[in-house]
């Protein structure tokens, strides 16, 4: 029996039920493996008083210290977070706070391996805890944890150091793996670990009927992602002036929503932009199945779940050449990879609208991205780390 301690700051809870759903799904799949026993530690960073009185942190403090989510036992220890320090002290504070917690956990659950699900601050904290408890550590890189935290002055050295010290490292795409090697992380401890997609939830539907149910007339383009200039929604809003028959649905929440709303109004296209906010997977699947195209003009990605989910719905995508884009868009049915250029964006979207792809052929592009394959690869990876450590001991 492989005893896994999953460490994940990117994990949903009662206050943030839509945080990191892909992390939760991966963890539930692994926990369901007949040879796995698993516990989840999902730490929460809170500042000291009086900063803790800020509404954001007061809400986080309402997260229970223990909960059961989908059959998973999850504990939410607190660690001290210092706002305004760009995360510089988070990993160290997390490791110090978790050590006594894990000592208690280990009395009842002698875990064999620590599986960190995000590179920062989870990764450096996991490495410190792995050394303290004498167990191997795996860290998974997902994209922004490498491209943002791994390049920020305050945290880059911690991210790179964790990648060099971990017993094993996972990357969501081959492209992200190459980026990490270029940063100085050892290739011989890395493997690509593709995401899964729920092929029962994300399915093609009758596009016309689904559009009508969503009160959309004419062509529909959907974008799924945090509302931020890094995700490129401003480029999609600009493109609407040259796509006069298109409705754009922006799914997600983020810091630049007000800016994008103002941009849409100033451009005279506000009546054709739908801001859905943060919505559940079932509703996301409906929007994706209704769309003629899903577009995401990201500055950086690892391998976006939204790409794979759209394709599973039979909807082709228009994306920038970032992360694992070429590992997903590997045939014409999948859509287009383009530069972040207004003319290229309009041309690509017009092509997918005017020459619809066969939904079944589009879906076939991602039928290899199953949660069963994801689970089996993760089990083999973590089990291999435990075996290797035992042989060295």
How would the blueprint of this fold be written?
Elements: E1 2-7, H1 21-31, E2 36-41, E3 44-46, H2 55-60, E4 66-69, E5 72-75, E6 78-80, H3 90-108, E7 113-116, H4 122-133, E8 137-141, H5 144-147, H6 156-165, E9 168-171, H7 174-182, E10 190-192, H8 207-213, E11 220-224, H9 233-239, E12 247-251, H10 257-266, E13 273-277, H11 281-290, E14 293-296, H12 305-312, E15 317-320, H13 325-328, E16 335-338, H14 342-354, H15 359-364, H16 371-392
Helix pairs in contact: 1-16, 3-4, 4-6, 8-11, 9-14
Write up this protein.
It is a single chain. With 393 residues, the chain is an alpha/beta fold. The chain contains 16 helices and 16 strands. An eight-stranded mixed β-sheet has the order 4-5-2-1-7-8-9-10, sandwiched between helices. It has a six-stranded parallel β-sheet with strand order 13-12-11-14-15-16, sandwiched between helices. Helix 13 links the parallel strand 15 and strand 16. Helix 8 crosses helix 11. The longest helix has 22 residues. The radius of gyration is 21 Å and the shape is globular. The two termini are 19 Å apart.
Could you name the key traits of this structure?
393 residues; 8-stranded mixed sheet; 6-stranded parallel sheet; 16 strands
């Amino acid at each position: 029996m492989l005893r896994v301690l999953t460490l994940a700051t990117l994990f949903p809870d009662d206050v943030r039920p839509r945080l990191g759903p892909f992390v939760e799904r991966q963890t539930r799949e692994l926990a369901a493996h007949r040879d796995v026993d698993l516990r989840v530690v999902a730490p929460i960073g809170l500042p000291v008083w009086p900063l803790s009185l800020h509404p954001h942190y007061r809400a986080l403090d309402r997260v229970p210290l223990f909960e059961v989510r989908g059959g998973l036992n999850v504990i939410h220890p607190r660690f001290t977070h210092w706002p305004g320090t760009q995360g510089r002290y988070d990993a160290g504070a997390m490791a110090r706070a978790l050590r006594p917690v894990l000592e208690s956990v280990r009395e009842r659950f002698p875990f064999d391996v620590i599986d960190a699900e995000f590179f920062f601050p989870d990764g450096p904290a996991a490495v410190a805890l792995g050394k303290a408890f004498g167990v191997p550590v795996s860290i998974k890189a997902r994209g922004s944890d490498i491209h943002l935290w791994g390049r920020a002055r305050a945290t880059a050295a911690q991210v790179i150091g964790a990648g060099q010290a971990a017993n094993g490292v996972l990357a969501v795409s081959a492209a992200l793996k190459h980026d990490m090697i270029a940063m100085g992380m050892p290739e011989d401890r890395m493997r690509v670990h593709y995401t899964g997609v729920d092929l029962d939830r994300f399915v093609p539907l009758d596009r016309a009927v689904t559009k009508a149910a969503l009160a959309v007339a004419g062509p529909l383009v959907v974008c799924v992602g945090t509302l931020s200039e890094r995700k490129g929604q401003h480029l999609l809003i600009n493109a609407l002036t040259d796509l006069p028959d298109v409705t754009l649905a922006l799914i997600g929440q983020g810091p630049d929503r007000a800016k994008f709303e103002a941009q849409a109004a100033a451009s005279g296209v506000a009546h054709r932009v739908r801001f859905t906010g943060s919505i559940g997977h079932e509703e996301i699947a409906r929007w994706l199945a209704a769309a003629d195209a899903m577009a995401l003009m990201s500055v950086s990605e690892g391998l976006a779940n939204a790409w794979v989910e759209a394709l599973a719905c039979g909807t082709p995508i228009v994306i920038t050449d970032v992360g694992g884009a070429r590992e997903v868009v590997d045939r014409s049915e999948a859509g287009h990879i383009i530069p972040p250029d207004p003319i290229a964006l309009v041309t690509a979207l017009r092509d997918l609208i005017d020459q619809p792809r066969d939904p079944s052929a589009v879906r076939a592009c991602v039928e290899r991205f199953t949660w069963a394959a994801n689970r089996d690869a993760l089990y083999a990876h973590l089990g291999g780390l435990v075996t290797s450590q035992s042989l060295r001991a």
